[in-house]
TrEMBL record:
InterPro entries: AAA_dom, DNA_Partitioning_ATPase, P-loop_NTPase
Gene3D superfamilies in the record: P-loop containing nucleotide triphosphate hydrolases
SUPFAM superfamilies, per the entry: P-loop containing nucleoside triphosphate hydrolases (SSF52540)
Domain AAA intervals: 1-159
Protein name: ParA family protein
Length: 240
């Protein structure tokens, strides 16, 4: 949500696709879930095209969203016996991908049908890791899943980068986690870290990305730095 916002503010045309039933990206960008004509659920479960479900952000120019609703929670069961169910999202995105500079898919925190669809559709994976011990266990599972997807569904998928979040330099464990992650993923780890920051935690409850809620706080500065580092790694320039 915040990375997409800063990339859009830099002048890139960005599509954020929310396929997490919790819909945090949707509500965090000020979209009212109760008044949606179509959502990611319709795109995945029916003949609705991705283009029909895209909303233009009223908050930030160049930012577009395919929103999420709780209906997505039932998608895995509904589509269990559907042919090619793992590549539904990829096939739908083929129709719109050339219209955007970047497309981000916000996944659920589980490795089910929705996440597999995202992994089958994307070029690369950006993995945020909280600076906590148990977060490392989940990363191992995700890396294994990415390798399986690479073998069977998407031979081009790569790990784009690792983002350390909820970082507090005063906490010994946080520094140990960062050290372990850098040891394993090496230069895939972004130099930018996202700190624990109360303003970052508050912003979604107001339906605003941090760039609009408080662009002077430490959290905002970190996400702005992340966007610039992300662009640089892509070989691009700030164009906004």
């Amino acid at each position: 949500m915040n990375l997409c916002s800063y990339l859009a503010l830099e002048g890139y045309k960005v599509l954020a696709i929310d396929i997490d039933p919790q819909g945090n990206t949707t509500s965090g960008l000020g979209i009212d879930k109760k008044n949606l004509k179509y959502s990611a659920y319709d795109v995945i479960s029916s003949d609705i095209s991705a283009e029909e479900a895209i909303l233009e952000s009223e908050l930030i120019k160049n930012l577009y969203v395919i929103p999420s609703t709780m209906e997505l929670a039932g998608a895995e069961v509904e589509l269990m016996n559907k042919k090619d169910k793992e590549v539904i999202l990829r096939d739908k995105l083929d129709q719109v991908k050339d219209k955007f500079d970047y497309i981000f898919i916000d996944c659920p925190p589980s490795l089910g049908f929705l996440t597999i669809n995202a992994l089958a559709a994307c070029n690369s994976v950006l993995i945020p890791i909280q600076c906590e011990f148990y977060a490392l266990e989940g990363v191992g599972q995700l890396v294994n899943t990415i390798q399986l997807v690479k073998k069977s569904l998407n031979k081009d998928i790569e790990i784009e980068g690792i983002l350390m979040s909820m970082y507090d330099s005063r906490v010994k464990l946080a520094n140990e986690v960062v050290s372990e992650v850098r040891k394993f993923f090496k230069d895939k780890v972004y130099d930018t870290t996202i700190p624990r920051n109360i303003r970052l935690a508050e912003a979604p409850s107001y339906g605003l990305p941090i760039a609009l809620y408080d662009n002077k706080c430490r959290g905002a500065s970190s996400y702005e730095d992340l966007a610039k580092e992300f662009i640089k790694r892509q070989g691009g320039d700030s164009i906004g």
